[in-house]
Amino acid sequence: MRVKRFRKILTGAAECAIALALGAGVLQAAPLSARDQPPTQGPPPGQVQPQSAPLSPDQLQQLVAPIALYPDALVAQILAASAYPTQIVEAERFLQEDPNLKGTELGEAVNQQDWDPSVKALTQFPSVLANLDKNLSWTSELGDANYNQQADVMAAIQLMRKKAQEAGNLKTTPQQTVTNQGPDLDIQPADPDVVYVPDYDPEFAYGYPVGLWPGFYPWWGVGGPYLSFGVGFGISPFFGFGWGWGGWGVDWGGGFLRYGGGRYGFHSHAFYDRNAYFHGNMRGYAPYGRGDRGARGFGGGGRGFGAAGGRGPVGTRSGAFSGFGHGGSARGFSSRGRSSFGGGGIRGGGGGHGGGGRR
Fold this sequence. Notes:
By secondary structure, the protein is an alpha+beta fold. The chain has helices at residues 2-29, 57-64, 72-81, 85-97, 103-111, 117-122, 126-134, 136-148, 150-166, 202-205, and strands at 176-181, 184-189, 194-195, 198-199, 228-229, 233-234, 248-251, 256-259, 262-263, 339-340.
């Protein structure tokens, strides 16, 4: 009786092995169609996937304060590009490696790169690009927030603009025009061929002290409540490229970015699903490296980029590049030809590459 049972078990095992072998052969001979593909597995039963709470209005205001008073199109470029932190690093290194590229020659060289149009657009403003590079943790947080809370980010920018206007620090000047479009404030260059990037301290510009985002490296050189303007960036050499100045804007009422006559579409996978990532202490989770740097070989240093995915300052969220140093580059800053209303400063947002900045 025992022998028969043993033979039965052996026979069953052999049949299973044969069936598996035949099945493997069939799979190799005829790949599964898309309809027959097995479904993507979710988390194990009983395991709850962590949910990331959205940033509060106060956190969003703190996050956007350093760029809320920039011209609309530049704000759009920054918000879009912040979803591509590794490309920002690449673009910054690209400009550093060939500082003599300017104007149309620079535009043609940039146009050949595989960067997002927003990153290409920021090469018109090298000091802005350098600031995003030196604050990669903040930059990645801005990209995260804009991707997942875009309407809230837009509302925070408008609130900060109104605060600055009420404090008497945001107004029309020879460098920019500030106009009311319904309930929203638009900021546009006074000269359509030249863009001035304002220099201001968020602690004073809004009429009340706005603290820095944890780990943020300040780039402004003014110490009072006023906006200061350095050398303007000549943008006309870039008009022939689709990613140039004229292609960008913000639909404040709709709460989205505009590019090329329509709504800007993200192609980054850095922040496509918050639930796939753990965040730093500000969101209540352990830090986890995010971003798209792995595909471009940025892991573990190389080219002096630092250790990727490292822990940021204690008590802060760790963005895609929180392990990077805050050294950055001072390229593009200039105090020559400064004009301002109500205050001066050491450094401005102008100068440098930018396609032949005007003085």
